[in-house]
Design a protein that fits this description.
single chain, mainly alpha, Methane Monooxygenase Hydroxylase, Chain G, domain 1, 2 domains, three-stranded antiparallel sheet, globular
Length: 238
Amino acid sequence: MNESAIHCARDESRLISDFHIENALDKITIGLRSSLITSSNMKKIIAYNEVGRAIVSAVRNGIESVDKITILPRSGSIGGYTKICPDEDVISSGLISKKLLFSKIEIALAGRAAETIVFGKSEITQCSLNDISYATNIVREMVTKYGFSIIGPISLDSDNNEMYLGDGLFKRKPLIGENTSSRIDNEIINISKISLNNSIKILKKNRVLLDKLVDILLNQETIDKKVFKLTTSKLLKV
């Protein structure tokens, strides 16, 4: 509420409104708003990235899962932001299903999927680099910690090492053989590629909605939950 009060004071308002609270939450969760993007081409690329993630989230987790889409840049970020509502069941139980993790990966890679569809493979940018890193970390944990892959229900994370004496010093020797390590790498690549292709399929099926939401986003810079729900409920193809 302290941050909300600051926003209220800046607007010279006498009462703290939902708008002030929302801006305060955005600052805390996604950082300060930085300088506006002036390049129209950059805005378009960012818009397709953000809308792509929102549509895949709507397909996998429902329209209500998307709270906000914006192309207004934040500190430490290349572009905009898509605010996905947290899963209440996960929050209350602390349990994460294989299905949920796959949806998170597909949502994270949806920006790259959108760029691929709209601009072509040779014109993709680094706009999705943070999301790709995030997706890769999830895939790695699925394979090496949670047993959510064809390798099986075994833990193969980096802590699985034993100590041995080499060159007069104690060193860590991995318990994972080269063959298993290679299988892990291949499985991480395979899951990532499958997830990207799933996102591409979803967005190709919803190309009309993708372009429609991007037009709104470029015009208004932010799409709130109400506008997203209204537009998506009419055009979304699951």
